[in-house]
Specification:
Elements lengths: L3 H13 L9 E6 L5 H17 L4 E6 L5 H11 L6 E3 L1 H9 L7 H7 L14 E2 L2 E2 L2 E7 L1 E5 H6 L8 H11 L18 H14 L5 E2 L2 E2 L4 H15 L8 H9 L5 E4 L2 H9 L1 H5 L1 E4 L8 E9 L7 H11 L2 H11 L13 H4 L3 H10 E3 L9 H17 L4 H21 L1
Parallel strand pairs: 1-2, 12-13
Antiparallel strand pairs: 3-12, 4-5, 6-12, 7-10, 7-11, 8-9
């Protein structure tokens, strides 16, 4: 006789997608995020829920340094010996999807009771032919994060346009206190870093590097953005450090403003109560009123050994409680629309700027050429560095980049 226990088991299978030991495995999941406190806290919460509901599965966290992570991961995926879960930024997803390296996640969305149209706009880059190949662990649109106390101490209010912003940056610069009004690219490093640190400003000015797959390096808005980046560097208004060191200086109260994702608020909450309590945010006060978003996706390689177990982990990430935790713990936008917890915006008014930025942000990956991101960074990054560190003229460099990018596109089309 089929009694209540049978019905309960059926409900379990439908809701969670598991029953019994079938498909159980040890899931490998390497990421630099295991070494970052707020990200690790969220990942461990998801891990605990996953292992509770899938008792014969185990997730193995592997903390990998950020430097060289993506090259190592890609090499393993291409060789057919990948981890069970891969971590991907926007252009990585586009490239992996084009090469057929990722497993469709549709059935795991079904396990979680989520349809593709419930996913945030950031997933556009991870969807092909109606199939979802990556789920956002977190989306970080770029807004202007501000230390309100430093502004008020200097007799300033939140800048609303470019002129006010430049005036505020200049007034906030205080060499005696080693204090800066702003951070933007100021050191030489990997080409991807030069691109990623400057693209929110380029987009904010209404510029771009690509539109619908066509290079736009020398359009007037892109040139105006590059001139702004050069001005604040040449005038000594930004510290000569890399972005990770700059994040720490913001947390320490030494940088007044930073175009960055909301994750930095999570770092401030853990490390510096005064900075955290004085955080404000706004859309960057640039003429184009647009920004960039950076999404961290999770995917499953087609050659993964434990696809179903990895898929159950991703289904766990999509559960309502976990989606709310993305906002509460990491302070980022979640994968599923409508998942911001009730009252969160009232308690964290700065987050409204990031929600607003998310509505108008576009992926930082080059539009229409997303899958070629790393190759394009290697063209654009050195050009930006030439402008900042080698005294190259902005307009001439923009024209040179336009020519190089047009040749790059032509070569790709020819092949």
């Amino acid at each position: 006789m089929k009694g209540p226990k049978f019905l309960l088991a059926v409900s379990c299978a439908v809701a969670m997608g598991f029953c019994g030991a079938a498909g159980a495995a040890e899931v490998s999941f390497p990421s630099w995020q295991w070494g970052e406190s707020s990200n690790a806290a969220l990942l461990n919460k998801i891990k605990g829920e996953f292992e509770k509901n899938n008792p014969q599965d185990k997730l193995t966290p592997i903390n990998i340094p950020y430097e060289g992570f993506f090259d190592k991961q890609f090499s393993e995926v291409r060789s057919g010996s990948p981890s069970d879960i891969v971590t991907l930024f926007d252009p990585d997803v586009a490239s992996y999807v084009k090469q057929g390296l990722l497993e469709p996640l549709d059935k795991y969305l079904k396990i979680a009771g989520i349809s593709a149209d419930q996913l945030s706009a950031s997933h556009k880059i991870a969807i092909k032919d109606g199939h979802v190949f990556g789920i956002a662990f977190q989306t970080n649109p770029r807004a202007l994060l501000v230390n309100g106390k430093l502004l008020k101490d200097a007799g300033l209010s939140m800048p609303t346009n470019l002129d006010e912003f430049l005036a505020a940056i200049e007034k906030l610069r205080d060499p005696a206190k080693q204090q800066f009004g702003f951070y933007s690219l100021s050191t030489s490093g990997p080409a991807q870093d030069a691109y990623l640190q400057t693209v929110p400003i380029v987009l904010g000015f209404g510029g771009s590097w690509f539109k619908e797959g066509k290079p736009t390096a020398n359009n007037p808005q892109t040139i105006a953005a590059l001139k702004f980046i050069k001005k604040v560097y040449d005038d000594g208004l930004v510290p000569r450090i890399d972005s990770r060191a700059a994040q720490q200086l913001f947390v320490d109260g030494k940088i007044a403003s930073f175009i960055v994702g909301p994750f930095l608020v999570g770092f401030a909450a853990e490390q510096n109560k005064e900075t955290y309590e004085n955080i404000e945010a706004t859309i960057p006060p640039f003429p184009g009123e647009q920004s960039a978003s950076v999404t961290v996706f999770l995917g499953i390689p087609t050659a993964a050994k434990n696809k179903d177990s990895a898929g159950r982990f991703i289904a766990t990430l999509l559960e309502p409680e976990m989606q709310k935790s993305v906002v509460e713990i990491v302070k980022a936008l979640p994968a599923v629309k409508g998942s911001i917890p009730a009252g969160f915006l009232d308690q964290n008014p700065w987050f409204k700027a990031f929600v607003k930025a998310g509505d108008r942000a576009v992926s930082y990956a080059p539009e229409g050429m997303e899958e070629y991101g790393p190759e394009i960074y290697n063209i654009i990054g050195p050009g930006i560095e030439d402008i900042l560190f080698n005294g190259k003229d902005v307009e001439q460099t923009a024209n040179d980049l336009q020519g190089e990018l047009e040749k790059f596109v032509a070569d790709k089309k020819a092949n």
